[in-house]
Design a protein that fits this description.
Blueprint lengths: L2 E4 L11 H7 L13 E7 L11 E12 L5 E13 L8 E2 L6 E2 L6 E2 L2 H7 L8 E4 L12 E4 L25 E13 L2 E6 L5 E5 L6 E3 L1 H11 L3 E2 L4 E3 L2 H9 L3 E7 L7 E7 H4 L1 E3 L8 E4 L1 E3 L7 E2 L10
Parallel strand pairs: 1-4, 12-21, 13-20
Antiparallel strand pairs: 1-5, 2-3, 3-4, 6-7, 8-9, 10-11, 10-12, 10-16, 13-21, 14-15, 15-19, 16-17, 18-19
Length: about 325
């Protein structure tokens, strides 16, 4: 619901190439240089707590504007809840899209979200929104898109699936993931493998790139793709040999999504291997290293479709 921005402490002067760090992290926000900042103190970020994250941030109120400048841009909203954080767990800032307000000092001290504030000021017709992360690996590139108060009809593939929100405001965009099927084509030989043992309910979350699945599903990914889990670093690293093998297989992954795990209408989202062909760089690794953005969920509360999925999905 609120806005999380990287603070200058996230790119300290001792950091190698601090300017590059700032650019890589999407820019930094320094509350000390803001004339409208009203500080509340340090609080937990409350981001992806179920995934084991427990970072803190400097919380306050400030004026938030969309666009490059006040003259060339979108709306300006005052008294928005902003968290300035430094840890690398969330390398980029996060723009909350929830309509629920944020309580800070007590349950009656509710500060409206950016979305709700825009609706209250009649800047948008509804509390709806639409988003896709974009797919730069496509031949001509495919930009991300965020629409307030509606959706971009040109990006929508018509279907008969109606989704309902879950009651938990922190994990409301929950869908039924009914199946994941990999398809590989080598010359005239086509092979398909089912990678999800049984349907699950999963949360769609853009804050992290990873897809969290049950351990049994991860085992199927491992055997199908030749992945190996690095227990120490909790990652699936991809070396050059495996990378070339996966590219030559012309892999696609079809995610079948419904409102629940029960039988009913579904929509298929097809991700090419390029969606999963990601790299991690400094400060996480000293050199650029490929990885496959799959994580082993500890329990069902961790089932998540992250930013990787949203490269090909329009929500």
């Amino acid at each position: 619901q609120q806005i999380w921005a990287v603070s200058p402490d996230g790119c300290p002067n001792g950091t190698s190439q601090p300017m590059s760090c700032s650019q890589a992290r999407g820019g930094v926000f320094d509350p000390a240089r803001s004339g409208s900042w009203k500080a509340f103190g340090n609080y937990t970020m409350d981001l992806d707590v179920n995934l084991g994250y427990d970072d803190s941030a400097s919380l306050g109120l400030d004026t938030v504007a969309l666009g490059f400048t006040d003259v060339i841009g979108g709306p300006t909203i005052h008294s928005q809840v902003v968290s300035a954080f430094a840890p690398y767990d969330f390398y980029l800032g996060v723009f909350g899209l929830g309509h629920q307000g944020t309580n800070i000092s007590n349950f009656t001290d509710v500060h409206p979200s950016f979305l709700t504030a825009m609706r209250n000021e009649n800047l948008i017709p509804s509390l709806s929104w639409a988003y896709t992360a974009g797919a730069p690996y496509q031949s001509k590139g495919f930009f991300g898109s965020l629409t307030f108060g509606g959706y971009d009809g040109s990006r929508l593939i018509q279907n008969n699936v109606s989704m309902s929100l879950a009651s938990d405001a922190t994990r409301d965009l929950v869908v039924g993931l009914n199946s994941i099927v990999s398809t590989s084509t080598n010359h005239s030989n086509t092979q398909q493998r089912s990678l999800l043992p049984s349907p699950i309910l999963t949360f769609i979350d853009s804050t992290l790139p990873y897809i969290y699945l049950p351990y049994e599903a991860c085992e199927r990914f491992e055997s199908t793709l030749g992945l190996s889990w690095n227990e120490d670093e909790q990652m699936y690293w991809v070396n050059d040999t495996l990378h070339e093998s996966l590219i030559s297989s012309n892999l696609t992954f079809t995610f079948s999504i419904g409102d629940t795990t029960a039988k009913g209408p579904t929509v298929e989202v097809v991700l090419p291997y390029a969606s999963f062909d990601l790299e991690v760089k400094y400060p996480f690794e000293n050199k650029s290293t490929r990885y496959f953005p799959l994580q082993q969920a500890v329990n069902e509360s961790q089932y998540t479709l992250g930013r990787t999925f949203l490269q090909e999905a329009f929500v």
